[in-house]
Design goal:
This protein is mainly alpha-helical. It folds into two domains: 147 residues, Potassium Channel Kv1.1, Chain A, CATH 3.30.710.10; 98 residues, no CATH class. It contains ten helices and five strands; from the N terminus they run ββααβαααααααββα. This is BTB domain-containing protein.
């Protein structure tokens, strides 16, 4: 079978929308040594399926090229010129994602449905979201959007940390507003924990978002109060974090 990696095309997401994905999301698969046994996923191993995927742990799965091309723009481009024949494990498509995230994708790509946020671990859901955006699966993105936020509606600080990992200001906004709605505990220790947990470019905008100055317009500030931000303050955070990112990108050009 011909080398399929040269045909992969990834369409980047607009800045601030969806999770940032690694440029190494497709990486070299572990080499198969003659006589060495292969670890297959216990469920996604149907020999009738014609495509083989390999997780970052080295676990192999079988998948349908028809369903992959139907759901994923990346696979549609990647597999467009590949003859319809069974892929051997030695030609497996390696994905730099956990077997749990890939397994959830294979559950969903065949029969897309709403994901249960009560039975799916958030860490897996978070990585699955990255995988769906990386593979550019429009239908799965729509199904996932609501479940992802609902999954951590009662733990917005975790959603904020995940949003920072993904450079996703949209979900950061949702998380900050949700913290205020829930009246989450907020003191200097929590502020330090929250600011330390997010990316460096968000530090100053987030601090300004959480600190509210005392005093009136035109008079000296007499102190600060720590409190969860209003919608106006959250929108200011989003603008300043976006500006900080653009400024950082400009500095890299010089």
């Amino acid at each position: 079978m011909q080398n399929i990696m040269s045909t992969a095309v990834v369409t980047p997401l607009p800045p601030g929308y969806g999770p940032a994905t690694s440029s190494n999301a497709i990486s070299p698969a572990p080499k198969i040594v003659a006589g060495e046994s292969i670890e297959w996923h216990e469920f996604h191993c149907d020999p009738i399926q014609d495509v083989v995927l390999c997780s970052k742990e080295g676990v192999y799965c079988r998948a349908s090229s028809f369903a992959l091309k139907r759901e994923s723009c990346l696979f549609r481009d990647m597999l467009a010129n590949i003859p319809n024949s069974h892929m051997p494990p030695s030609n497996a498509i390696p994905l730099d994602f956990s077997i749990e995230a890939i397994s959830l994708f294979l559950d969903q790509y065949a029969a897309p449905s709403a994901i249960s946020h009560t039975t799916t671990n958030f860490a897996v859901l978070h990585e699955y979201r990255k995988l769906v955006h990386y593979l550019d699966c429009d239908r799965l993105k729509i199904l996932l959007a609501g479940a992802y936020v609902i999954a951590y509606k009662d733990k917005p600080l975790e959603l904020l940390r995940a949003a920072s990992q993904d450079d996703d200001l949209g979900n950061a906004k949702i998380a900050l507003l949700r913290c205020g709605e829930m009246k989450e505990k907020l003191d200097s220790a929590v502020v330090f924990e929250v600011v330390s947990a997010v990316r460096e470019l968000w530090h100053l905008p987030l601090l300004k978002c959480l600190l509210h100055s005392h005093g009136y317009h035109g008079t000296p500030t007499t102190g600060f109060t720590i409190q969860w931000p209003t919608l106006a303050k959250v929108e200011l955070f989003v603008r300043e974090a976006s500006q900080a990112k653009l400024a950082s990108m400009e500095r890299l050009k010089t």
